[in-house]
TrEMBL record:
InterPro entries: Flavin_trans-like, Flavoprotein, UbiX-like. It is an enzyme of class 2 (transferase). This is Flavin prenyltransferase UbiX. The gene is ubiX. Residues 6-187 form the Flavoprotein domain.
Length: 222
């Protein structure tokens, strides 16, 4: 059977917990992943979670970051423009860029292919495969909006990192998981990362209280 992974590109925007949650969700669903981490994202990882990813030790570093087995992950260096995901003939299901910096958004929208992340996203757009872009920037300038509109017009799903609060969320991780769940919904990948709206006001909150959700220390509360 041909391996058919999702490409996950992590760019340098703040929001690496979103990338971690998406990766965990894909792996929990049994989906193989091809991972590309930009140079700027390595610095963001170091700043946000005290970890980084080294090309020569990626398996150890990614496992430590995700806190899990990474046998379903294949890693490609962001500087390797001869890597598999740089070609449309390389079989993948689609791509997620999470978080997506405004620089990555611009590079993809303009087809610059400055690194493997941008090139892989461009390839998946031209091959008409699913592409989800998760921008994490605020406020947005006109230039940012123009580039995001260009991605939308090219067929990408623009999914801002905007968590919903109706799902009974009471911790930061639940808000992160909400965004990751919306990403997986866009890819058609099943998950249980958040409580879905059922047409009943307060239902998710009541369910969380019944299950003891929210009984955490102040350091975890939103």
């Amino acid at each position: 059977m041909v391996r058919l992974p999702w490409v996950v590109g992590v760019s340098g925007a703040s929001g690496t917990p979103y990338a971690r949650a998406v990766l965990a969700g894909l792996l929990d669903a049994g989906e193989p992943v091809d991972l590309v981490v930009s140079r700027a994202a390595r610095l963001t990882l170091l700043d946000e979670v005290g970890r980084t990813i080294r090309d020569a030790h990626w398996e150890e570093d990614v496992a430590a970051w995700l806190g899990r087995d990474v046998s379903g992950v294949r890693y490609w260096s962001a500087g390797d423009l001869a890597a598999g995901p740089s070609s449309g003939s390389y079989p993948v299901r689609g791509m997620v860029v999470v978080p997506a910096s405004t620089a990555a958004v611009a590079g993809i929208a303009l087809g610059l292919s400055k690194d493997l992340l941008q090139r892989a996203a461009d390839v998946n757009l031209k091959e008409r495969r699913p592409v989800v872009v998760v921008p994490r920037e605020t406020p947005l300038s006109r230039g940012h909006l123009v580039h995001l509109l260009a991605l939308h017009d090219a067929g990408a799903v623009v999914l801002p990192a905007s968590p919903g609060f109706y799902a009974g969320t009471s911790t930061v991780q639940e808000l992160v998981d909400f965004v990751a769940g919306k990403v997986l919904d866009s890819l058609g990948v099943g998950h249980t990362l958040f409580t879905r709206w059922r047409g009943e006001l307060g239902a998710a909150r009541a369910q969380g209280e019944h299950a003891g959700i929210g009984e955490t220390g102040p350091e975890q509360a939103v």
